[in-house]
Every structure is written in C-alpha cells, then in structure tokens.
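#lab-general

N.A. 3:47 PM
ok so I finally got the sequence cleaned up, no stray characters, all 75 residues accounted for. can someone with queue access submit it? mine expired

B.Y. 3:52 PM
send it over

N.A. 3:53 PM
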Amino acid sequence: MYHQPEESDLLIGYLLPAGDGTYSPIIDFFHIPALYKKQAAFQMMDFYNKAVTSDHEFFIRHYPKLLSIISNVLK
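B.Y. 4:20 PM
back already:
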C-alpha cells in the first residue's frame, strides 16, 4: 500500500539520466519514515565509511548491502 511521504521522511533510490535532462528511477524509492531515519542514516554512513572506495564504485558494488541495511532498520 502506498503512503505519501511526510516532509521529514527519507527517500532513497537510484535515478538514471534519460538523456533529455530528465531522470527516472530503476526501482521504486525506499521510503524511510522519520522515526527510523536517524538509525538508517547512521548505519548507512558507518557502512560507507568502512568501505574504502570511490563514491561511484561504492554505489555500484554495495547498493544491495544498503538495501539490506534499510530493510533491517524497517523490521
């Protein structure tokens, strides 16, 4: 069921450029309610800081782990 995100909620997802100045998501955005936002952000930043890599490589190689972190926070 779709829930409209609140102003203080966190949305995470991948956007790909369409080439005409617009962007489209490849999958739906993950909606993290404000109640869980801080916990999810700290865990994602901790994981990011431990992965010694470039930003581009990090999101290509570790995006599934980020999804796992989000999933665990929302349980």
